[in-house]
């Protein structure tokens, strides 16, 4: 049997390579059919090293798939929390739409992997992680103030709209449609989301 040749990596480079290839494998195979052995081969590291860094397949999934989403939420909301004079609702909604659209467009494979894991049941520790619910509550508090359940509903529906537009815009509009223009799409989604918030939070 031919020996598998592995490219030498520095510690940080090896970890980054494993995370990058894990996202690809999870998005292609789904959680249950993905293997640490395949991730290791693609990243050109040993499977032992993958276990040393992440402990298990669930640990690798959490850090490669859920981790970036959590970092996005923390960074996004952290900017508002640090401001002495935070923007009004309309500006908050626009920033929310613009940044979430950009994140989804950049990480479509990540979101596909997460969706597949949820569809297939995923590991217990991931299925009950509550990351999405926590993000919704934090966004609702930032955007809707004391809106409570109504604000959470507005955020959840808004996120669904944004995910759909970012993922399926090419299917939703003809190739020559001006509605495929990213700026035009962003403006339209912002108006829909803002109108939804105002309607949902109106006492």
Q: What low-confidence regions span 5 or more consecutive residues with pLDDT below 50?
A: 1-5
Radius of gyration: 20 Å
The counted number of beta strands is 0
Helix content: over 70%
Helix-strand topology string: HHHHHHHHHH
Please identify the top-level CATH class of the domain at 65-201. Answer: Mainly Alpha
Name the structural class. mainly alpha
Distance between the termini: 71 Å
Q: Which CATH architecture of the domain at 65-201 is right?
A: Orthogonal Bundle
Largest sheet: none
3D shape: globular
Q: Quote the beta fraction.
A: under 5%
What integer is the average pLDDT? 80
Q: What's the CATH topology label of the domain at 65-201?
A: Tetracycline Repressor, domain 2
Give the count of helical stretches. 10
In short:
The chain has 203 residues and is an all-alpha fold.
Provide a descriptive summary of the structure in words:
There is one protein chain. By secondary structure, the chain is mainly α. It has a domain of 137 residues: Tetracycline Repressor, domain 2. Helix content is 77%, strand content 0%. It contains 10 helices and no strands. α8 crosses α9. The protein is globular and about 55 Å long. It starts with 10 loop residues before the first helix and ends with a helix.
Please give a handful of descriptors for the protein shown.
203 residues; mainly alpha; Tetracycline Repressor, domain 2; 77% helix; disordered N terminus
